[in-house]
Each structure stands twice: as structure tokens, then as C-alpha cells.
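#structure-requests
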Amino acid sequence: MFAFRSSGKIAYVMQVKKDDIKEKLVAVAHNEFIKHGVKKTSMRVISKASGVALGNIYKYFKNKDELLHTVLTPLLHALDEHMAYNNSNDNLTIGIFSIESLQRELMKRLLKIIKTYRAELRLLFFDTAETSLGGYRKWLIDQQMRRSMEYLELMKEKFPQQKVEFSPFLMRICGAMWVTVLTEIVADDQLTDEEIERFLLEYIKFGAAGWYKVLEIK
């Protein structure tokens, strides 16, 4: 019994140590990617900066691409959650196009993502061309288009008399505009949080007014 407990404790300590090393590698890689870019950040550079032997790094990550994906995973999850929120029950209302409190909530959620992940967004959109995330911008547009179509279908179920038949290409253009908004914001280092907040609210109101018109809301 004593030996079993001792073995379990050792295994637990070893696992904690492994987790600590992995977290350290992710933190160091994050810093290097943000400061120097993906191309200039090699596994050797990460090894030197972290103090973890190069060979040992490959026990945790098979290559730099996997490490980059791990670094950006919190951002990818945040973007996915934001798109899912757009189709939530709270937003399945005609009021989304005219009620300012709903528009401000959407703005706050977008602003939080930008403030929390501004550097990571810049990395994702402008410095991953030669990685597995190189096609992420196109994928994000496709996802936004698909979720927009789903949103209209959900609105149709809830409001059967409401016009929601629109060209899929229009949905794609709207998705591309949303992604462009993000890329333009993170590309401009001079924009302050206050300026971003003002622009986002203006953009959301601008878009809502357009949808209010094409949906022919009475």
C-alpha cells in the first residue's frame, strides 16, 4: 500500500513538472512569435530562450507549427465563441437591428477580443502564411457566412413572416467585411481603445441599419 501511494505521488510530481515545462515553452514561444515573427522564431531560438533542451521540446510539440497553433488556441476559441454568440437565443430578435443595448453588448464583446488578443490577431492575420493557419482568414470568412445563413434560418423559424431569403454571396461579402474590420483595426498601432470602441459601435449601427432596410422590417 505504501509503495503504491509513493509511486502515485512520484507520477503526480512528474506530471506537474511536465505541465510546467509545456506551459513555459508556450509562454516563451508566445513572446518570441510576437516580438520577432514566425519566420525568425526557430525551435532552436525557443530552446535557448526557455532553457529547455531542443530534443526535449519535441517531446511536447512535434514541430514549430504545432507550437504556434497552441499559442494561438485561446484566440481561436475566443473568435469561435463570438461567432456562436451571434446566433444565440438572446440575439434572435428583430430588436437586434434597432435596440442600442444589444448593439453595445456586441461591441463590448468584440472590443474585449481585440484588447485581449490584439498582438495575437496581428500574428494570425499577417504572419502565418506559411503555416497550417495560413488559410485561417478564408476559413473565418466561410464560417461567418455559414453562421449568418444559419442565423437567418433561425430567424425564419421564429418569425415566419419575416423576409430572410438573401444571396449566399451577400452573406459571404458581409463575412469578409467583418474579418476586414478586425484586420484593419489590429494593423493600425495608432488606434486607441477609445477610437476602436467608437468605430466598432459606428460600424455595428451602420450594419444594423442596412439589415433593417433589406429585411424590410415594418
